[in-house]
Structures are given as C-alpha cells and as structure tokens.
Write a structure and sequence with these properties.
There is one protein chain. The protein is 44% helix and 18% strand. The chain is of the alpha+beta class. The chain contains 17 helices and 11 strands. Helix 2 packs across helix 8. A hairpin with a 4-residue loop joins strand 4 and strand 5.
C-alpha cells in the first residue's frame, strides 16, 4: 500500500458541481503543482453520428482551432497560447470530444478564457474548411500506413459492422470531401450544449476561482435538450475473422472478445484478468510469446469500456509465417484462465502492478483531468484513485476465473488482422477455443 503516501497529493478530493444550466464543473486541486490543466469535454463523438455524418465530430474539432469571434485567425490562437508557454490540443473518440491547454498556474485566467473561446465561439470559416479537408485526408493516409493502428479500425468493423460503433472516428474519405459548413454548424448546435458539456480544471487553483471563470464565460451556453446516441447492440453466434490485406513486413492482429460496459460491477475483476494476461514484462503473454517463443516485439492485453459496451483485446505484431502458431497460443492462454484459478502470488502481483501504474499515470495535471473526464462520460459517477485501488484489492482468484469463463467463448470471439495473409481458411479453422 506504499503508493498512497508517495502520491499523497492525488488523494485530495475532487469537487464536482452541476450548474442550473446542466453544465458540469469538476475541480481537481493539486496543491503545489506548478501547472494547471483546463479541459472542456462534450459528450459527442463518432458513436453519435449517422453514416452520412461519420467523421463530422473529429473534423469539427479541427475547425474550432481555426478562428473565433474574438480571434479571427488560427495564428492568433496559436500565438496567444505559445505566449503562455502552453501545451494545447484536442481529441475525438467514440463518445467524447475534448479541448485542452496546460500551462504554468499563473496563466490560469488567460488559459481558461482562450479554451472557453475555442469551445464556445468558433466561426468555422469556409476558406479554412477547404484547407482542412486536405489535412484530414492526409491524416487518414497516415493511419492507413500504420498497420498497428489500422487493425483497430478493422476490429471495430468486424464486431459492430455498419453501425456507429463499427465506423472509424476519423470517417471515410468520401464524407470528408463533401461536408459543408452548414453541417458543422447544425451538428455543433445540436451537441455543444450545457447538459453535454463538462469543464475540468486540475491544478493548484481553488474551486471558487474555477466557478467564477465558468460562470463568466459559459453563462450564455445553449441549453437545448441533449441528444443521445443509438445503443450498441451485441450480435454474435460464432467466431469471426476479418483480414485487411496489405503488404507489410509484419502482420498485426487483435484477438478480441465482447466485454463489459463501464458501469458493470465486474470491471475490477476484468482489470486483474488483463494484468495477468498481458500487462508488464512478467505477464503470461509477454513471457510466452516474447521470452520463450521469440515471436513478437510487443504483445498487450486491455479492456476498453464505453457507456454501454466493452471490448477485451489482445494485440501483437508477428511474422506472417507464425500467424497460426501465435493464434493457437493466445487462445490456449485464454482458455487456461477459464479453467485454472490464478495463484495467490500471481494475483497479488497483478494487483500491485495495476495500483502502481494507476498512481504513476496520474502524476500530471493533464492526466488527472482526463482521468475524471473519462469517468464522468462513461460512468457518470466519479471515484478517486484510492477507491479504484480498493476495488482491485478485493478481487479474488474466483472472480478472475468467473469473468474469464464468461468472456472467453466462441460466440464472443473475434480476430482482426492487417497483413499479407494468403491462407485465410487456415486461420479461420484455427479460430476456436474448443
């Protein structure tokens, strides 16, 4: 339990308040920290888009940096942030879009004003829209050339098909080429409203100061009714395989099982399962595939949680000639966990590794802000790191085996591959836990 004293400043209470408008404000005080992080999140992303809108959330995120009513040029925004010595950017995922900047705490007031302006007052200039199309088309090309990233898009398509959850966050080229300014304006008006907006500030700043700035800058934010997304539907009866053929030096693959949504009570148990299988250099998969077989440079396990679904995944990059061999080992290791309980020694190691990385991952103000933003969007209830650690510490070997038995089934099994695969039938035949 030594982690708690080493990062005692993390234990300070966050403060959350919901204003009459529906806007949520989360303050994470970190006394003595030299930096402050301002993050504004909106609950929208690719899972909120129709097929014709796919890519709109991400493209809009780019456009908000082009100009505002107060700052008519992108260079005005960039120059002001650079003058503060700030780090800034934005991101879009399936269920949220975020805009942020981080700087020395003495610049908090100005930093907050700039990020608020970006979020609330973008002008979406038509001339910049045309330029940004080229930027995003090049971004798509860049991702196409990164097979270890592309394979995750292949997996989404395999598991969720032609639904919002199955489409890439960045969208297809044909959509990017035809989006109009009106589409951005309408989409923004529908989603960038008070009840879907969360303001998070992490740093040595008081809640009173944060609320003063929020009430000043967000007083006129639209209060329309919030739009929800379509629920993700899980449909599968047997193992599925999808191969994106590409001439690459390495074959990248993701073996995935249908998992649990973020509110599921089994999340702590599956977190321990992830640790045992593929977290750290002494995990079962790293030991087997890299140390014993010399088959890969990386192998990782993870569980991604969303508001209403989850994915348990194992990713690796291998020589194409060893695809069947590695797949067999991955499936064998999964099957073992559903039949044989983990030892107490391995269980404690997994818990300690999880706790250590939880705290080390929260040593910066930006990490803290994103940590609480993620919880607010996916769960709607905030927990301190200490609470999450306690939940992990309570997990038993029986709990781990129970989730392994529930998840590692043929009717939840999926395999996505990017590489120069010639014998698809051979892989399909090997894709079974039985």
């Amino acid at each position: 339990m030594g982690c708690l004293s080493e990062v005692s400043w993390v234990s300070m209470n966050f403060k959350k308040i919901t204003l009459p408008s529906g806007l949520r404000v989360i303050t994470v005080p970190t006394q003595g920290n030299p930096s402050v992080m301002v993050l504004v999140v909106v609950e929208t992303g690719s899972n909120y888009e129709t097929k014709s809108q796919n890519g709109l959330s991400h493209f809009l995120e780019h456009m908000c940096f082009k100009s505002t009513t107060k700052r008519p040029k992108a260079s005005d925004i960039a120059r002001e942030l650079d003058n503060l010595g700030a780090q800034n950017n934005a991101f879009t995922s399936n269920e949220l879009t975020g805009y942020y900047a981080k700087a020395a705490k003495k610049h908090f007031i100005k930093l907050f004003e700039i990020i608020s302006d970006l979020y609330l007052n973008p002008t979406l200039p038509a001339e910049d829209l045309e330029k940004e199309r080229g930027v995003i088309l090049e971004e798509i090309s860049m991702y196409e050339d990164l097979p270890q990233r592309k394979v995750w898009e292949v997996l989404s398509e395999l598991m969720y098909g032609d639904t919002p959850a199955g489409r890439p966050v960045i969208g297809p080229r044909e959509n990017i080429k035809r989006f109009t300014r009106d589409e951005f304006a309408h989409y923004r008006a529908a989603h960038y409203v008070a009840s879907k907006t969360i303001v998070i500030v992490a740093g040595d700043v008081s809640e009173k100061t944060v609320l003063t700035e929020v009430k000043k800058h967000f007083k006129d934010i639209p209060r329309h009714k919030r739009l929800s997304k379509l629920a993700v539907k899980e449909k599968q009866k047997s193992p599925r395989l999808l191969i994106h053929r590409k001439k690459t030096d390495q074959t990248h693959m993701v073996l995935a099982f249908r998992g649990y949504g973020a509110k599921d009570k089994r999340i702590p148990a599956i977190a321990v399962l992830v640790e045992v299988l593929g977290k750290g250099m002494s995990s079962r998969l790293f030991t087997k595939l890299r140390d014993e077989m010399g088959a890969c440079y990386y192998v990782k396990a993870l569980h991604e949680e969303y508001t209403d679904h989850g994915v348990f995944a194992i990713s690796t990059g291998i020589n194409v000639s060893r695809t069947k061999e590695v797949l067999k080992v991955l499936l064998e290791e999964c099957a073992k966990l559903s039949k044989v309980p983990v030892s107490n020694e391995e269980l404690q190691k997994a818990k300690e590794h999880n706790a250590g990385h939880l705290y080390m991952g929260l040593e910066t103000t930006d990490a803290l802000a994103e940590f609480y933003a993620g919880q607010e969007v996916s769960v709607g209830k905030l927990k301190k790191p200490q609470e999450l650690e306690k939940e992990i510490r309570k997990v038993t070997a029986g709990d781990v085996m129970k989730v392994a038995k529930d998840i590692f089934k043929n009717e939840k099994l999926n395999l996505a591959i990017v590489g120069d695969i010639s014998n698809e039938k051979m892989i399909k035949k090997a894709l079974s836990l039985k």
